[in-house]
Design brief:
Layout: H1 5-17, H2 20-27, H3 31-45, E1 50-52, E2 57-59, H4 61-82, E3 93-97, H5 99-115, E4 120-124, H6 127-135, E5 141-144, E6 154-167, H7 169-174, E7 190-191, H8 197-205, E8 217-218, H9 222-230, E9 235-239, H10 240-249, E10 253-256, E11 263-270, H11 272-275, H12 278-290
Parallel strand pairs: 3-4, 3-5, 7-8
Antiparallel strand pairs: 1-2, 5-11, 6-9, 6-10, 6-11
Pfam family, one: LysR_substrate
Organism: Micromonospora mirobrigensis
Domain HTH lysR-type: 3-60
Length: 293
């Protein structure tokens, strides 16, 4: 039985994305073309490869088995065909992640590669949207606070965020005694989301208490939250990397230092089809090398 590589590439794109529409977008083909290719491949192998759902498709056992057998050879072949040894970074790298981490940690770590000729496109977003974009090929790498459990994605630990309860000196001086939920009762709380997940986690893990208050200020950017803290609007819980310079300068202070500070692991997620490319490997190495700092 002879099957063309185009049929297998389309099959693998559908298998990884879970959608004929998304696969067609990724491949730069019309949706009817991908549908016809899948039909031709199913006729060639003599069994259905996907169950059609109201939204998307789900691979049959035969589809999963075929994907397991062809994914690695196709990924290697595509890497070889795309590799231009005359260029240090043959293709553009598409990177996604949390806006604050990208701005403060990732982009400075990648500045040398960009100066050396790497073309980089960066997208900020939340974990679910980033993983969706990664799965369908709109991203090559994604920094995410959620370890992906999706078919066709890999992940490795990148960075452990340490969280700090911070306030401007004016609030630190007012909270001269033990910092407890009762002591913070009348202090404005600043958060990046209405649900205040970072604050709630701090209260739960450090104070062993449930946060029942709503924030006084909500702004969907932790850098803006930090600016409000520096200006004296109230207190917040922020990643240490974000407020490291302000802590060193004394414009904000750590209000409490627990024996075991809350941590949050960020993961570097990738698609195997992209992970083997020379320029993607360079970005991965640079991010991992910078993480301990």
């Amino acid at each position: 039985m002879k099957v063309s590589l185009d049929l297998l590439r389309s099959f693998l794109a559908v298998h990884r994305s879970g959608s004929i529409t998304a696969a067609a977008e990724l491949l730069g083909l019309a949706q009817p073309t991908v549908t016809a290719q899948l039909r031709a491949l199913e006729e060639a192998v003599g069994r259905p490869l996907f169950d059609r759902l109201p939204r998307g498709v789900r691979p049959t056992p035969a589809g999963d088995e075929l994907a397991r057998r062809v994914a690695e050879p196709l990924d290697r072949l595509d890497t070889v065909l795309a590799d231009d040894r005359d260029e240090a970074y043959p293709r553009t790298v598409f990177l996604g992640g949390p806006a604050e981490f990208l701005a403060v940690r990732a982009l400075p770590a990648l500045a040398g590669l960009v100066a050396d000729g790497l073309e980089l496109r960066v997208t900020a977003g939340l974990p679910d949207a980033l993983l969706d974009d990664l799965a369908v090929g709109r991203l090559d790498l994604a920094v995410t606070s959620v370890r992906p459990r999706r078919r066709g994605l890999t992940a490795e630990p990148l960075y452990d965020e340490e969280f700090v309860l911070v306030g401007a000196p004016v609030w630190a001086d007012r909270l001269a005694g033990p910092v407890t939920p009762a002591a913070l009762r009348d202090v404005p709380l600043l958060a990046y989301a209405e649900e205040a997940p970072i604050l709630r986690r701090w209260w739960r893990t450090v104070f062993d208490a449930r946060l029942t208050r709503t924030p006084s200020l909500v702004v969907a950017d932790l850098r803006a939250v930090l600016a409000a803290v520096v200006a004296g609007a109230g207190v917040s819980v922020l990643p240490r990397y974000l407020c490291r310079d302000e802590l060193a300068a004394g414009t904000v202070r750590a209000l409490l230092t627990p024996p075991v500070p809350p941590l949050n692991t960020l993961f570097l997620a990738a698609r195997p089809v992209a992970a083997g490319r020379r320029e993607v490997q360079a970005v991965r190495r640079a991010l991992l090398a910078a993480a301990p700092d």
